[in-house]
Amino acid sequence: QVQLVESGGGLVQAGGSLRLSCAASGSFFSINAMGWYRQAPGNQRELVAVITSGDSTNYADFVKGRFTISRDNAKNTVYLQMNSAKPEDTAVYYCNARVLTTPPPKQWVYWGQGTQVTVSS
pLDDT 10s per residue in the chain (121 long)? Predict the structure, then answer.
């Protein structure tokens, strides 16, 4: 079993910054990709950013140039640095991890419980 614990959410003014963290713990062989998704009321959950074990990154167009995803493999932790926040960034942010267990080798997908981010105008 793997647990993802998020932290760092809260209230920030438009134009401000916030840093989210997500730490993975439990029994696994390795963590492949880790990412952040978000869901605003009435909307579907959407990808924000993802980072692979090799540090390749991919961002949704609506956060490019503003948000930065990074990870610390030694701590099994992924971060999301949110700069130039906009009111439309208001949502619950969820951490996601693709975890490899073995034997036999199998990939599992885990989600965090979510952390609220509110950007005031």
Answer: 899 999 999 999 999 999 999 999 998 888 999 999 999 999 999 999 999 999 999 999 999 999 999 999 999 999 999 999 999 999 999 999 999 988 888 899 999 999 999 999 9
Cβ(95)–Cβ(80) under 8 Å? no
Q: Which residues contact 79 (CB under 8 A, 6 or more apart)?
A: 19, 20, 21, 22, 69, 70, 71, 72
Contact of 23 with 71, CB cutoff 8 Å: no
Element (H, E) at 75: none
CA distance 121 to 108: 39
Rounded to whole angstroms, the maximal C-alpha distance in the chain is: 51
The whole-angstrom separation of Cα 38 and Cα 8 is 14
